[in-house]
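Sorry, can you check?
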Amino acid sequence: MSEGDSWLWATLVLLGAYHGINPGMGWLFAVALGMQERNRRSVWRALPPLAVGHGLAIGAVVALAGLAQWVLPLGTLKIGVAVILAAFGLHRLVRHWHPRGSGMLVGFGDLTIWSFLMASAHGAGFMLLPFLFQLSPHGEHAEVHLAAGAAAGAGTGLAAVLIHTAGYLLVTGLAAWIIYTKLGVAILRKAWLNLDLLWALVLLATAALTLVL
């Protein structure tokens, strides 16, 4: 990893932290599970499947982008990603949608699927792609390489997913533990931030950033 790429890796970690601080992405579920079962261990038990589901959602987007590089030049991929990000952002501005039907399911598989659906519904994976584009090789044929692609690029894509997910898990766990043990969910009624609006604005900003990076 070159010194010039350090800020990109740091950004991937910060994006994971940003995803983790959103109650709709997992920590509120972990807190609710702990309160329902009246057991601190239930909070910790919810974290691994939440992280796995989030990582799978991110990895699926990165893998699809890596496959797309075989048929699309980098410039075209950037436009496509920008359009998808903008669509997610506009969708969240006009309609707040969350996957339904799972209820308070507590199995590892249920939590993993729930987290996967939530991350996918929020368009979380697409937020990483502009920065992965910058980690791709820059050479004569740079337009056909994506950091999440095959061969050497696959290793970079996997590392990006793992680093991002680690940032997500750290902040999700910290938020869940602080809320459960110190503050309680009542704090959300007193100091609520409209994270749906913030998320939509970040998606739109990332769409614009994709085109200029």
